[in-house]
Structures are given as C-alpha cells and as structure tokens.
Amino acid sequence: MDAVSGRGDAVALTPPPWRYTLTEVPRGAAGVARLAAAYPSLRQAPRGRGQPVMLLPGLFNSDRSNVALWRYLASLGYAVEGWGLGRNLGQRAIGHDGARLFARVEAMAVRHGAPVTLVGVSLGGLMARIAAQRMPDLVARVVTISSPFAGPPTATRVWRAYQALSGARVEDPAVRALVEEAARPLPVPITAIWSASDGLVGGAICRGEDCDAVEVRSSHIWVQFNPEVWRAVAMALASRV
Question: Which domain holds residue 179?
Fold first, then answer.
C-alpha cells in the first residue's frame, strides 16, 4: 500500500502512460481552442456574491498563468485574487514551513471578513490543501485542478523538474511531511478536478476519498484554459456542501 495516499492501487504509484505525455502540447492547445466557442455557455454558470477566491498557480507558473480563469470567475461575481508570491517554486515561494502562503490567505480572509476558497492548479492544489489543514477556519473550500496529492511525487513525470526548481529533494523529510499532510483528509469541502488522460501527473493520484471528484477531458499543460475545467470550478464554487 502507498504510504502517502493509503491506497493499495498500484496505478497510483506509476507515472502516466507515455502516449499521454508525448501528446500534451497538441491536446492542451485543443483545449484552449475550445474555450471561445464554450464561453457563452460558461457565462450561464451560477453567480457568486462577492465571496473571496484565491488562485494558486502550478509549478514554475505565476499569477499570469491564471489570468483568464481569474477574469472569468470575477465576471461571475467572485472577489478573485492571485496568490501574489511570484512563480511557484515550491518551498522557495511559500517559505520553508508555508508561512508566506498562510499569511496571504489570512490577510485575504481578514480583508473580506469571510473564509477564502482556494483554487489550486497542480502543485498549487497541494499547497491549497496544506493551507486548509493548517487554517480550516480561514478556508471555506478547496478546489484542486490536476493536483497529484494522493500519491508520491515519483508517480509523476515532473518530480525531477520540481527538485531542480524548488531546490528540495523529494526524499527530504520536510518535503515528505508536506506531501503526507496534503494527502490527509481535509476538514473543509474539497472538489478535485482530474483527467484520466493527464500526461504529467496521472488522474489516479489527483483525487481521494475526501473529494467530490470531477472528471474532465484534458491534458495537464494549459489545463487552466480548458472550458470543462472552468465549468467544474464554477459549479464547485456555487456548491453549498
């Protein structure tokens, strides 16, 4: 059984098939291309009432990578912000113990007088889960998008890139502790958006028993531009569960 996720399912311990990995870019581009045609129906999603939402980018990405999703959610009536910590370089960005991220979440909750919903893409989703573990009174909900929280980093095709960019080793005790913390059931509602054809992290480790799991057709690259993902995020934000 996987010591991180607690699952006995062997597929959770292996990276996704190469047939998906090698087609990531054209499939990601196809998802982006569908966005314009889907936008009119996306505008029919339930409206927000000014609830605070923070978007957390994926590995090596900054808030700019989420600008399109940001504008969409803002158009639905949510008070949307980025995480404001520059490029996501793992612990280099959030601080060794996550203190920089936690401070940002707390500040947003105080400004709005309400708990914050955290929407995290890939690595950003793991960080969102950790923040929810540490400060459940300040986090209303977590939405993860293609975030591999239910398996070890070595079950992805990006763990070496993570090591190079973050300066941390996946076998380091501090990293393992954060991965295990992200995998534990959350004390707040959680929606996990995942794809069976994800070519970098694999859908099997992007959902868990504590989640409302929503499957989409998507690559990993440019997943935050996929119209199915936008619809899933909008519906998750509108949920009262």
Answer: 10-238
